[in-house]
Structures are given as C-alpha cells and as structure tokens.
C-alpha cells in the first residue's frame, strides 16, 4: 500500500496530491556511462559458445586415443588401414555442425523470449534489452517482473517482492523507497521503480540467480548413463590394449609393421566413438525441430525429462484457458445501484497500472469516471486473492472498495455464496465487489466488508487443450489441474475439456507431506491453491516417486516451476516464470507439449537402440583381444576390416535409426537396459568369430594364409553383426528393411569387386571355409535370438 505523501504536487483542478515521478537518466548520462563501461554486459547465455562447441567435440578422451593410433597408422600401414581416423574427423565435423545449427536456433528463440526490462529515461518509459542497462538506470517493475540487476527502491506502490529463490524466505517482502532490490527476485504484487546500483559482473546476485534459474542442469539419465558406460569401457580398454600390444609384438611372425597394424586394429573398435556424437546430434536435431514449432528448450536434457514424466500439473489460467476474459454479467447485491457499481468498477480498473486478466476485462467493460481519484491502493496478490482501493468521489465523499474471490471476502453463510456456487458450476469465474468497513492499511481490511455486486467473467478455453489432455491420458500421464481460482469453477472448466476426476478445495488439504500426497493421488482438480501450496504439492508428488512437469505462466507459478522436474512456461508468461522454466512455449500453445514429449521419446528410445549396437562392438572387440592374448596368435583383423564392418553394421545404420520416429514410452535404467543386450550379444559375436578364425588357421596353409583366415573371420563377424542390426531395427518398416538390406548388398559388393577386394584385403578362398563361416554365424544368430528372449524374461530392465 502507498499513501500519497504531503510533499507531493497538487493538481489545480482536483485538490488531490499527485506524485512527481523520477525522470530517470538523460541520453547524455546514458552515453557517458556506456563510455565508462558501466553497462550490464553479462550475457544471458542460452547455449554454448562456438568455441565451447568445438572444444567439446574435438578434445575428448576417445578422440585423443583414436588420434594417437591414427598417427601411428599413417606411418606404418597403407592408407586404407588409417580410414578410421578420417571417420572420426567426419564424425567430429558432423557433431560441430549440428550443435552449431542447434545453437543458432536456440539463440534466435532466446532473443524472442528474452526479458526486456522497462527503463525510464528523459521522463519516458521504454523497453530495452537487458544488456543495454547502465548504472543508475531507473527500472520500472510490476507483477511477474524479475529484477535483472541489483538496485535500491525509488518508488513503491504496494510493491511486494519474492526473494525465495535467493534467500529461501517463503513470504514476499514489502519494499519501500530506500530498500534494497536483489537481482533474481521477482514482483508478486504492486509496482514501482528501482535505481540500478550494480550492473554487469559487479552484480554477483544476478550471476547467482542466472546460474540458479537457467543453468541448473536437468537430471539426464541418458547423459549420466553414457558417462558411466564410457568409464567402464575405459577401464576394460587399458589392460586389454596393453596385453594385446605385448602379445602381438611377441608373436610378430608377419613383420613389425603388420603386428602394429593388427594391434591397432584390435584397440580401435573397443572405442564406442560414435555413441557420444549420435547422442549430441539427436539432442541437437530435437532442438531444431522443436525450434521450428516456437518451443525454446533452455536445457537440452529437458527434452528427455519431459518424455519421462508420469504427472503433469497444469495451471488453469493461460494453460487450459486463454489469458483474456470477458465480463458477461453484473449482478448488484443488497439493492446497490447498478450505475454506481459501474463507476466503482471503472475507478478500480484505472487504479491499477498493471491489471491482471480479470481486471483488464473489467476495464474493457467499464470505462473510468473522470471525477473519481484514487488516494490509496492495495494491489492484487495471489496469496490474498483480492485487491482494493480508496477513492475520493466526485461529490467529495471517500469510499474504500475490495474486489476479489467471494469465498475469501464473504463469511461462510452469506447468501451471495450460493449464487456464486451456481455460477461456478457453469465454469464461470465470479468476482465480488465489496465496500470495506476498514482502512486498507488495516491487518484485515476484508473483515466486515459489505457485498455490493457480483462480476461474472467467462474464460476463453484454448481450442487445443482438450486434444492435449487426451494425448496425455493415452500416454498414461496423469494430469492435475492446480489453480488459485474457485475449485468448483476450475472443475467445471476441466470437465468441459474432458478431464474427469475429484475436485478438491486446496484450503482443506493437509499440510503434512505424506497426507497431502495421498490426497493428490485421489484428486484431479484443485482450486484455491496458494503459491506456496503449489510448491508443496509438487514436492508431495515427487516424494511418492512421481516425475512431475509443471506448466504455468503467472508469477504465482514460479516456485512450483522451479521445484518441478520439468518447468514449462508460456512465452506470454511473466518474466520470472520464463527465467526458471526449462521449456518455454513461445507460441503460447499448450498443444506444443505433445511434440516435446514425442521428441524426447524419439531421442531416448533411439539412443537406447544404437547404444546397444555400439556396445556389442566394444564387448566383442575386448573379448577378441583377450582370446588372442590367451591363444598367443595374430589378431585376426586389420583396421580396414573393422572400419568396413563398423561403417556398414553400426555407423551408417545407427545414424538413420537415431533420427527415426519412435513413440515408445521412455523407460528407466538406461545402462541396465543397454548392457543386458550388449554383453550377451558381444560375447556370442566374439566366440563365434574366434571359433571361425581357429578353424581357418587349421584349414589354410602356405602363402596368403593369414589373409584367408582374416577373410573367413570377417565374414562370420559381419553376418552376426548384421543379425544384431536386424534385431535392433525391429519393428520393421519399409525403410528399415531397405536400410538393413542395403548394408548387406554393400558388403557383398566389396566381396565380388576385385579392386574393393584388394583395397580391403578381403578375399574368400575356396568354398568349404566360407560356408563353415556362414554356418557358424547362422548358429550364433539363432543362439542370439534365444538368448535375448531369455534375457527379456529373466533380466527385467
């Protein structure tokens, strides 16, 4: 609340004090501060810089290993044995290009969704970019606005600021001129202006708030799982590679260079070098696809997170309904004159410089009366559920009015509540206009208020909301509507959209978390929820193991959005909600959410598939190396053979499979799901290949023996790897069948074209041994089918 002080100017026509607003900096003063570097130059990052993208893709542990081996091969072996190095360069280039494209998409969308504070310069208010703020700028703030720099309050009109994201203090803090305003806090009620005292890198609170709001990474099971797998792979690689190096240099029957080449051929396929690339490419393409739908993903793993949710909490206003409302009826109470009520409503609308949707509808319906002047105001607050103002009427009389929720302003047995209930059951929103019997600065200004009229508002339902709710129901995702509005009204709106279930008044919810969680499991629609309760409800759902997404657009949703597993904000929402959300729907369309869920499922399902392909290769490479060391024989393959196999059975197919549509519901335990297929598949492939190799060693003699043995072993390994690919590609579609078949045709092409035979050192000798190799591969394929079916039954994910 703000009283006009005695030192203000007097309007000569209306003898009511008029405050003199501060004019802010002049253009010359702004230019002077820019020249001195006193600019808010801390960039609001939405993605990695180009330098960070290049470093992240080039300087990896496995690129270092592959790079050293590649340099060795360039000196000791033919060009075709160093092909794997060029593949790594191509992979790295693809990764950089795709992430750069995603960065461009993110950055362009971030500009659209960027906070643009309103500053007062030369007495005029204008919205500018955050980076254009300078020291001593006068910044205007209202409900939902976030303080982007540190400052000191200069003007306050019922200004209440929430600092909970910084201090943990749940209650809003009333600010008066001279009080500190912390960057990262946000306005929950009232308005005012503050002067910037710390900008740029001096505003440490701003940096902390940005870190807390934008860069707290969403938990990504995919990212964590791949890191765990790569850690285990490294542990397996080091001792195996050392043993392989020693054994090959000891065997050395075919010369030093050939032994080195075969050693490198054993080490290179142990590295799942394309797995990280494909994961980042899948995420990057997901960002680009969603960007085309005006969906800003502020944290990449949020795509994955939304695909894992089982509960979505929806704020009614702005999510299920459009922001605007229409006044459909005015019902005077207790014989109040309707024309007088219209004047009061017009004056109330004029008294709030930043009206919410309800008040804006009243402003549109009832114009201001010129001879009424506001002398004191109480801004609307989500916690209070009402606003108020004191007026000096044209006839010199003074009156105080309240406008808000009837069930909050009226006593339980008041007759007006029955009428309100009937209107709420029709899905209409009802506000009560009441004449206050106390001053606005009284601790309980609503006590003793006399009802004057009911204002009936109709909310506009989003045309796409029903289809979106139906989609979530089909996907076994439970929807909970959580609103500050009357429970009956919210329940009626939800019912119109096809959402059925119990409606609960949140004022009767238990405060203890476990009991609240039980109530939340039973109910579907919750009304009269306070901002703190929204946060508590998210925590209660999470305490029962639910993965919770929260959508909202108002300042009262900020705390719940922050605590939810995934926060989703509307682009037209308040600055504070956009800052804490991981996903911002810039087109304000709730219907975009299924696209985000689908994109997440595509990424998770497909990466799980292709990770199995990569890790089968890693397992059989490590086991083959161990078998070679134990038998003290030459490693059966040169790098060129495994480059060919990796390209045809993993590299090319994995790229297409990773980007394919996939509607499977995301399942947990990524590492366990991948390893339970990779280990048996890799072991079978290694054993079958090594058996073929040992038989071939006894079958072939004389010059060219090793090349013939290698060709037979390569044939077996290729056929088993193709069968693994065929299983991973299920369920079949025409393009999946064509993909698998084309890889088989490509290998056959290599076997029958003389130049390609020579280039890859592959030539099947005789008829007996190649058919033995095919027979062993067929037995291994049947064993693989049976083993994976057994794993499905006995080793649940």
From TrEMBL:
Its main location: membrane. The keyword NAD does not apply. This is HAD-IC family P-type ATPase. Residues 118-211 form the P-type ATPase A domain. It is a multi-pass membrane protein. Keywords: Membrane, Translocase, Transmembrane, Transmembrane helix. It comes from the Bacteria. Coiled coil: none annotated. It comes from Streptomyces longisporus. Signal peptide: none annotated.
């Amino acid at each position: 609340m703000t009283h006009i002080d005695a030192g203000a100017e007097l309007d000569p026509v209306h003898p009511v004090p008029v405050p003199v607003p501060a004019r802010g900096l002049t253009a010359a003063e702004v230019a002077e501060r820019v020249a001195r570097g006193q600019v808010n130059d801390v960039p609001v990052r939405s993605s990695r810089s180009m330098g960070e993208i290049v470093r992240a893709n080039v300087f990896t542990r496995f690129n270092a290993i592959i790079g050293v081996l590649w340099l060795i091969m360039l000196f000791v072996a033919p060009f075709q044995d160093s092909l794997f190095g060029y593949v790594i360069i191509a992979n790295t280039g693809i990764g950089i290009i795709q992430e750069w494209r995603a960065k461009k998409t993110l950055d362009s969308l971030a500009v659209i969704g960027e906070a643009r504070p309103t500053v007062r310069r030369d007495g005029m208010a204008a919205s500018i970019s955050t980076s254009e703020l300078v020291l001593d700028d006068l910044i205007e703030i209202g409900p939902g606005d976030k303080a982007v720099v540190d400052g000191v309050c200069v003007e306050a009109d019922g200004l209440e600021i929430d600092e909970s994201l910084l201090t943990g203090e749940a209650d809003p803090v009333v600010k008066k001129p001279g009080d500190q305003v912390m960057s990262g806090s946000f306005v929950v009620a009232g308005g005012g202006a503050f002067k910037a005292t710390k900008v740029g890198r001096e505003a440490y609170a701003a940096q902390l708030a940005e870190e807390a709001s934008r860069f707290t990474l969403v938990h990504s099971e995919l990212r964590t799982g791949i890191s765990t797998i790569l850690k285990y792979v490294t542990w397996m690689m080091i001792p195996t590679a050392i043993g392989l190096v020693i054994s090959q240099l000891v065997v050395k029957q075919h010369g030093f260079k050939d032994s080195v080449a075969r050693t490198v051929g054993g080490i290179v396929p142990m590295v799942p070098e394309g797995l990280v690339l494909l994961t980042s490419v899948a995420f990057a393409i997901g960002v680009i696809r969603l960007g085309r739908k005006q969906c800003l993903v502020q944290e990449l793993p949020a795509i994955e997170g939304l695909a894992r949710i089982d509960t979505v909490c929806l704020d009614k206003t702005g999510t299920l309904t459009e922001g605007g409302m229409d006044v459909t009826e005015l019902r005077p109470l207790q014989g109040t004159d309707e024309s007088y009520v219209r004047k009061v409503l017009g004056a109330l609308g004029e008294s709030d410089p930043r009206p919410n949707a309800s008040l804006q509808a009243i402003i549109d319906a009832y114009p201001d009366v010129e001879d009424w002047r506001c002398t004191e105001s109480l801004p609307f607050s989500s916690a209070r559920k009402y606003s108020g103002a004191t007026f000096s009427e044209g006839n010199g009389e003074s009156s105080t009015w309240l406008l808000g929720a009837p069930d909050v302003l009226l006593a339980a047995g008041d007759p007006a509540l029955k009428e309100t209930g009937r209107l709420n059951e029709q899905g209409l929103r009802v506000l009560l206009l009441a004449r206050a019997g106390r001053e606005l600065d009284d601790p309980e200004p609503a006590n003793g208020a006399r009802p004057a009229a009911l204002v009936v508002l109709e909310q506009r339902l989003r045309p796409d909301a029903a289809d979106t709710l139906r989609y979530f129901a089909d996907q076994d995702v439970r929807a909970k509507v959580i609103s500050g509005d009357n429970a009956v009204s919210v329940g009626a709106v939800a019912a119109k959209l096809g959402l059925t279930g119990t409606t609960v008044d949140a004022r009767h919810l238990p405060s203890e978390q476990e009991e609240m969680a039980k109530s939340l499991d039973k109910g579907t629609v919750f009304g009269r929820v306070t901002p703190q309760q929204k946060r508590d409800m998210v925590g209660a759902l999470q305490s029962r193991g639910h993965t919770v997404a929260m959508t909202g657009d108002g300042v009262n949703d900020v705390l719940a959005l922050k605590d939810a597993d995934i926060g989703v904000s509307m682009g037209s929402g308040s600055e504070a909600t956009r800052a804490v959300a991981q996903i911002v729907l810039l087109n304000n369309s709730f219907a975009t959410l299924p696209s985000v869920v689908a994109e997440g499922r595509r990424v998770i399902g497909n990466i799980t598939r292709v990770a199995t392909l990569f890790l089968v290769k890693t397992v059989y490479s490590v086991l083959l190396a161990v078998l070679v060391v134990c038998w003290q024989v030459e490693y059966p393959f040169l790098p060129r053979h495994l480059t060919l196999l990796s390209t045809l059975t993993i590299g090319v197919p994995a790229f297409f499979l990773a980007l394919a549509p996939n509607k499977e519901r995301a399942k947990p335990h990524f590492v366990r799901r991948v390893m339970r297929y990779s280990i048996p598949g890799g072991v079978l492939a290694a054993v079958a290949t090594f058996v073929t190799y040992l038989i071939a060693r006894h079958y072939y003699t004389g010059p060219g023996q090793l090349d013939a043995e290698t060709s037979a072993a390569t044939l077996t390994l290729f056929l088993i790897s193709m069968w693994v690919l065929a299983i991973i590609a299920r369920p079949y579609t025409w393009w999946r069948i064509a993909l698998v078949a084309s890889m088989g045709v490509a290998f056959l092409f290599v076997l029958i074209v003389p130049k390609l035979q020579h280039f890859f050192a592959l030539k099947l000798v005789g008829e007996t041994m190649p058919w033995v190799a095919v027979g062993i591969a067929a037995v291994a394929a049947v064993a693989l089918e049976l083993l994976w079916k057994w794993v499905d039954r006995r080793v649940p994910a």
